[in-house]
UniProtKB/TrEMBL annotation:
Domain of life: Bacteria
Protein's organism: Serratia marcescens
PANTHER family xref list: ENZYME, PUTATIVE (JCVI)-RELATED, PTHR45398
Protein name: Linear gramicidin synthase subunit D
GO molecular function: catalytic activity
Residue ranges annotated for the Condensation domain, each copy included: 5-344
Region (Disordered): 408-428, 462-496, 513-535
Pfam short name (any one): Condensation
Length: 535
């Protein structure tokens, strides 16, 4: 039955040859039937869906009781004038142009690469707010003079910003666009789409963020009738394989408690099914008699169900912390459960870090080479590179790279694999040559969806260049005379084609504590305690 329901949602409409709605009745027995109603979004919005349910119930009862009900026809002035709800088009256009000034063209959420065929069959994850959390959040919103919708919207924007390691996110939202009382009972799609840019400052408290967003929504109210298609036409954003202006949406709906009433017939609703969304991610908050339900609709070609489940869990954890302490700085909220944090501390030694682990990684590698030169350090295919051999041949590897690759291309190799993987490999993009693989197993996955990023950068550098030890305050500097040293950008590690010493530079990092630069590279801003366990 669910397969039949999903099939109804995936059949496209031919608006030139059929009505923009379908009604299918599937008979299971003489007393048991299934009713499928499918609507095209151009004629039915969430408001209209509730009206149609009421109208269908009244018509069914009128047929049973042999009385006539005149539903009438509304005059859709909105169809003739899409700017009907706009007081001043120029003022509204100026407002939205200012609102989206400096906004990123595309969100920074990383897509999942390895998605199985089974994972592509699902495109929705359902969760709900607990009975204790919902009234606490409602009271917090009321105390700050705003609505629960604004609070949930702000928390969702904060979640996306934290997961994207950025301070600017653009999230779209549909609005009913029924400002005139005469449209309250009109059947049709009056819905419009608006897009807000959220600028998240890590030092601000959530209370400050909530007040800022509440003021933003209040200013946008009188401009929300400007058609989104007209806004896109005027702004002329960069067009690509993604939705213009925003690709992530937040939806808030109120589901009426009175479902379909067919007289003496017993009616049980089926789980809603959706066609593949045209956005990358949609969070729909549904308020009803049973509480607040959350539906995470996503593009199954871009995200795995495990990734979306992780986002849903992080959102629930974030809301719990907000309810407990809304005055806390937004960067201090944890998005990982306490059990995962404890596991991560155990893997990385934790706060009680021995003094030896505070030494630069390069010094530790040199000491390991002198003390355990016969132990395996790296693997190249089937060959094992021990520490002593690796240090002897580091210059040769760098020389080979300089001789066989473009001189101006950055020698930075990066491979992202899950922490549950047995090893991480590095590949050279120009020739797709497999170079090295880290020999130590990476075990323990604090939370699915996060990755341990290990890269190699090989180049030439004079041995006498001054440098400082690696530390939390100086995460991008290397140690003088060391064979290995951390690096992040080519500008921080100039390569030369002359010089007697060839150096091999190793970079490790964790994207969970990284901020994206404008040029696409990443910069760590929190130091990992134990490099060895990470590698």
């Amino acid at each position: 039955m669910l397969a039949a329901l999903n099939a109804q949602c995936t059949i496209p409409f031919d608006l030139a040859a059929e009505y923009p709605l379908r009604c299918r009745i599937l008979r299971k027995s003489a007393q048991h039937h299934y009713l499928f109603l499918t609507f095209h979004h151009c004629v039915v919005d969430g408001w209209t869906a509730n009206l149609l349910v009421d109208e269908l119930s009244r018509d069914y009862q009128a047929y049973e009781e042999h009385w006539h009900y005149d539903n009438g026809q509304a005059f859709f002035r909105y169809l003739e004038d899409p700017f009907l709800a706009v007081a001043n088009v120029d003022d509204s256009m100026a407002f939205w142009r200012d609102e989206l000034d400096g906004a990123p063209e595309k969100h920074a959420l990383e897509y999942d690469i390895a998605i199985t065929a089974a994972g592509k069959t699902q495109n929705i994850v359902r969760t709900s707010l607990t009975n204790e959390l919902e009234p606490a959040l409602a009271q917090l919103a009321k105390h700050n003079g705003t609505t629960l919708f604004t609070l949930l919207h702000s928390a969702f924007a904060l979640l996306i910003a934290r997961e994207s390691a950025t301070d600017r996110v653009v999230i779209g939202s549909p609005i009913a666009n029924r400002n005139e009382p005469t449209l309250n009972d009109a059947v049709g799609s009056f819905v419009n789409t608006i897009a807000h840019q959220f600028i998240i400052t890590g030092d601000d408290s959530f209370t400050a963020l909530l007040q800022k967003n509440a003021n933003k929504f209040a200013r946008a109210f009188k401009h929300q009738g400007l058609p989104f298609s007209y806004l896109v036409e005027q702004l002329k954003p960069t067009r690509g394989k993604f939705h213009p202006i925003f690709q992530i949406m937040f939806v808030c709906q109120h589901r009426k408690s009175n479902e379909l009433n067919l007289g003496g017939a017993q009616v049980n609703p089926l789980p809603r099914s959706y066609a593949p969304p045209k956005f990358d991610l949609v969070l729909e908050v549904i308020s009803g008699a049973e509480g607040i339900q959350l539906e995470w609709q996503y593009n199954a070609k871009l995200f795995t169900p495990e990734r979306i489940n992780g986002l849903a869990q992080a959102y629930a954890l974030l809301l719990q912390q907000i309810a407990c302490d809304p005055s806390q700085a937004v960067d201090h909220y944890s998005l990982a459960p306490m059990a995962d944090n404890r596991q991560l501390r155990q893997l990385s030694v934790g706060q009680a870090m021995p003094a030896c682990l505070r030494q630069p990684l390069s010094d530790r590698l040199l000491r390991a080479a002198h003390q355990h030169g016969d132990r395996p350090a790296l693997f190249e295919g089937d060959q094992v590179w021990h520490y002593d051999r690796l240090l002897r041949h580091a210059g040769l590897v760098a020389h080979w790279l300089n001789a066989h690759t473009a001189p101006r291309r950055a020698h930075r190799h990066r491979s992202s694999t899950r922490r549950s993987s047995s090893y991480c490999g590095a590949r050279r993009d120009p020739r797709r040559t497999r170079l090295l693989a880290v020999g130590r197993r990476i075990t323990g996955c604090p939370r699915s969806g996060h990755y341990a990023n290990i890269g190699l950068r090989l180049g030439c550098e004079q041995s006498g260049s001054p440098s400082r030890p690696l530390s939390a305050d100086n995460p991008r500097s290397g140690s003088g005379g060391a064979v290995f040293s951390p690096c992040h950008r080519r500008s921080n590690l100039p390569t030369r084609r002359s010089g007697s010493t060839r150096l091999c530079h190793l970079y490790i990092g964790d994207d969970r504590h990284a901020k994206r630069r404008g040029d696409g590279t990443r910069r760590r801003h929190q130091y990992l305690a134990d490099h060895e366990s990470t590698v």
